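User: Hey, my collaborator sent me this sequence without any context and asked if I could get a structure. I don't really work with proteins. Can you help?
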Amino acid sequence: EKDEIKSGTVNVGNPIVIKVTHEEKDSTYAKIINLVQKATKEKAPLVRLADKYSTIFTVVTFLIAGFAYYQTGTIESILAVLVVATPCPLILATPIALMGGVNAAAKKRIIIKKLSSLEILSRVNAVMFDKTGTITLGKPRLTGVRIFDRSMNQENILSVAEAIERNSLHPLAKAIVHYAQEHYVERFHADNIREVIGEGISGTVDRVRYTLTQVENSTTSDMAISLSRDDKIIAVFGFEDQIKEDSSDIIKKLGSLGLQIAIFTGDKIEVADRVAKKLGGHITVVAECSPEDKMKGIEHLKKIKKITAMVGDGINDAPALAKADVGLVFSNEEQTAASEAADIVFLSGDFSSVLRSFEIAKRTVSIAMQSISWGIGMSIAAMILASFGLIPPLYGAILQEGIDVIVILNALRASK
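Assistant: No problem. I've predicted the 3D structure and written it out in structure-token form, which is a compact way to encode the shape of the chain:
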């Protein structure tokens, strides 16, 4: 009675009566959506890759055309230079390469929502990760059993716990049942099951009453459950959130790319530190974060001139995803506020998708830059030859088309 219940809470126990005390606009969800909208509006405008070189190319073209007129004194020489002065490497190379990168990413179930995201991702030098559901699976697993009653062995204790917990929907209960089934322990039958949400679950096995209760502030694992008999603890089960496969290797490879890595999580610092230690490498850890705290973390990185990426999976990450220069989200094919706020969406839970997206972005932009430099280089060389009268306008027009074809073919390599 008089306890506060947050919106989105799922009742798995007896029916309850709830009194609404706040309007929808005051909900946590509404506040998060407002943060996302504010962050999206404040994003810095993109400076396109081609825009950096277009002015220089234009100035060089006019200088060479002026030199040609100075040399020959004829309008034909200016025409010869302008005909071969193709801006197509600037106009075509980048979008074709970026489209190719989008295609290459899609083959790996990575959806790039904006072409500019690949361009920015190639320049990112600071990455912030959420922990639960991003680096970890968000599913606890049983990691060990400490026995305090030597009259019972581990198999007996697991059988008793499994008999009682298979009647519960709690994630830790499911972890015990899964572990027991994996190890083929003997199946017992439990009677008189009674579960009180927030307190624990009890049941009778072979006419003995047992109780399982969550242990607070466990120092040896992320989570723990005690098994009691006659109000005396006879065993403690330790649990940890599972790190995604290859997470440690992927984090180290991202670090080798020169990226500054941070983990911002709502979990306690002890839990976050354990995960960071398993991952290895130099990782900044910030714990007990709200959605706004994560967004402020991105703002701080931007203030110190970092190009930022945020990797998350849930609505709590949405403001930071929107605020980051590039937001990357594990959506598992669901349409959420997080996937709406993100620029890049991973349709699988495979953590290697993060590394793949960085590799694809860097390769794509490298090919685009290669196409631009080749195209502009060949065009300037042709303009110089034309300024000395070595390339007539007709041949210049044909040569210009040839340069465009070379640039386009090279840019298409990004799709592989």
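In plain terms: The first helix runs from residue 28 to 41. You can pass these tokens on to your collaborator as they are.
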